[in-house]
Design goal:
about 260 residues, Rossmann fold, 7-stranded parallel β-sheet, globular
């Protein structure tokens, strides 16, 4: 186990599977204690290509402290409950990583000219408001930390356009989160709280692989300058850097982790 994050306590949302799980395990391997938050802590067990154990179990194997919290992050009250639970268990925390979310509305009918208002509102709740609720609830706790940081998760589609204008609601929700990240960094910098985001490209989580027949995302390797698609661990290592002392003078930054992918 590395000691880069030794003594730090982290909250990672969406950590039941995919990028969230990889991030929780990566920062635990670097010495942090990790609260694993997901709407269903067992969500990865039913998806082909995901791990067959709980994220909390994997973290315990590393020797780090962990707790699991199930919560619907689109409900504002959940943020207060999560923060209170971690504060009661560990006395506070130093790191918040918002990964929960995704392109949860149907691919069919997601183009800009046809996506429904209901799907747009759902995308905003899942990708934007869930992160805002937790950021705001966490600031009073993070200001007590000697090494506080927040990392949000945007998307390659927040600054580019997916082929044919698909997933419009998802993209606009992530673009809004990117700018919220910059604003929050400016707001809480005087409290020594750093706020950044990672912007993943096509990343081969189990869910993306399962949906690739409809979306075609699994066939995009040739669009990357590196000739491959991202893996959850690629994003996780970037998050680990942004919450570490090595990035102590970086805030308000959106870090693209996309292999320089072209959206064509």
């Amino acid at each position: 186990m590395s000691s880069a994050l030794s003594g730090l306590r982290a909250v990672v949302t969406g950590a039941g599977r995919g990028i969230g799980r990889a991030t929780a395990i990566t920062i635990a391997a670097q010495g942090a204690d990790v609260a694993v938050v997901d709407i269903d802590l067992r969500s990865g067990l039913e998806i082909p290509g995901e791990a067959d154990d709980l994220t909390t179990d994997a973290i315990k194997e590393l020797g780090a402290r962990t707790i699991g919290i199930e919560a619907d992050l689109t409900e504002e009250a959940s943020a207060t409950r999560i923060v209170s639970a971690v504060r009661e268990e560990w006395g506070g925390f130093d790191i918040l990583v918002n990964i929960a979310g995704g392109a949860i509305t149907p691919f069919e009918g997601s183009r800009a000219s046809e996506t429904s208002p209901a799907d747009i509102r759902r995308a905003l709740d899942v990708n934007l408001m869930s992160a805002i609720y937790l950021c705001q609830a966490s600031v009073p706790v993070l200001r007590e930390s000697a090494s506080p940081s927040i990392v949000n998760t945007t998307s390659l589609s927040a600054e580019n356009v997916l082929p044919g204008g698909s997933y419009a609601g998802y993209a606009l929700s992530k673009a809004a989160l990117a700018h919220y990240t910059r604003y929050l960094a400016a707001d809480v910098g005087h409290l020594n709280i750093r706020v950044n985001a990672v912007s993943p490209g096509y990343t081969m989580t189990g869910r993306v692989r399962a949906n690739s027949a409809a979306t075609g995302f699994a066939d995009k390797a040739s669009h990357s300058a590196l000739g491959r698609l991202g893996e959850p661990e690629d994003i996780a290592r970037s998050v680990a850097f942004l919450v570490s002392p090595d990035s102590s003078y970086i805030t308000g930054h959106i870090l693209a982790v996309d292999g320089m992918t072209r959206l064509v």
